[in-house]
Amino acid sequence: MSEQNKSIALVTGGSRGIGAAISQKLGAQGFHVIVNYVSNETKAAEVVQKITAAGGSAEAMKFDVSHEDEIVKAMEEISKKGMPLTVLVNNAGISEDSLILRLKKESLDRTLQTNLVSAILLSKEAVKLMMKNRNGSIIQISSVVGEMGNAGQVAYSAAKAGMLGLTKSLAKEVASRKIRVNAVTPGYIETDMTHELNETQKNTIIDDIPMGCLGSVSDVANLVGFLAGPDSHYITGQVIGINGGLYI
User: Fold this and answer.
1) H/E segment holding residue 182
2) Cα–Cα distance between 31 and 58 in angstroms, integer?
3) Active-site choice (37, 156, 234, 247)
4) How many C-beta neighbours within 10 Å does residue 102 have?
5) Residue 166 to residue 163: CA distance in whole angstroms
6) Measuring CA to CA, which residue among 8, 157, 170, 168 is closest to residue 89?
7) How many Cα neighbours within 13 Å face the side chain of 21?
8) Whole-angstrom Cα distance, residue 20 to residue 92?
9) Cα–Cα distances in Å, from 115 out to 110, 139, 160, 226?
10) Is 156 a catalytic residue?
11) Residue 186: which of 115, 248, 242 has the closest Cα?
12) Could you report the per-residue pLDDT of 106-135, keeping only the tens digit for each?
């Protein structure tokens, strides 16, 4: 894709794990990838380097998705880059697990703000830019626990379930402007978090997965790449699970 034909893909939380894999996949597809991060500049720079080393185009952009003013400022910067924003991947998120009887209001607020409110606000700002070009794909990275629930994750599950309502409602609002909105719900994926589990914990999880294994970050990235590209032009408002059969 020539520079004049490039469009922008913004990946929030794009410096590690699933976000890093998504960033690299979209870079390989020809997008100019903006790798969002909030604290780990080194990791974000590594993702950018991998994309550019493979012949792609990317840059890192620091802003905190839990702050509306930073979201608005970042989108203003993106609007000035001379390339249209055509893909937004709302991947940034946190998990502060707790049984509801021990759930603190501050933790609830942080979880909802970072996982759900940020996705709504980012989608709002992205739609403003995408409407001008009548082209766009917004992809929410939710979770299987947003569909099936999980003890000890009341706040996280509620936030991820909220992303599904966001997906379906927004898809109906913007379809006439050729903007698609879909959600991906990963199950247990091999990341830094799963690497911290001991063998007993990992085997317990795998026993519940019909396919008998964890997923990989590339599994999620490949699905996001499809939803970002033209082959999925008639798909909107959908929730697509990638969980090895854990939830059907």
Assistant:
1) strand 179-186
2) 8
3) 156
4) 9
5) 5
6) 8
7) 17
8) 11
9) 8, 13, 7, 23
10) yes
11) 242
12) 999 999 999 999 999 999 999 999 999 999
Give the Cα separation of 191 and 202 in Å (integer): 12
Three-state secondary structure call for residue 248? coil
Compute how many other C-beta atoms are within 10 angstroms of the C-beta atom of residue 240: 17
Domains of the chain (ranges, CATH numbers): 3-241 (3.40.50.720)
The pLDDT tens digits for 149-201 are 999 999 999 999 999 999 999 999 999 999 999 999 999 999 877 777 888 88
DSSP state of 230: G
177, 246 in Cβ contact below 8 A? no
Q: Report the distance separating Cα 76 and Cα 81, nearest Å.
A: 9
Q: Which residues pair with 88 in a beta bridge?
A: 10, 138
How many angstroms separate the CA atoms of 60 and 62, rounded?
Answer: 7
The answer to whether the beta carbons of residues 237 and 167 sit under 8 Å apart is: yes
8-11/32-37 β-pairing: parallel
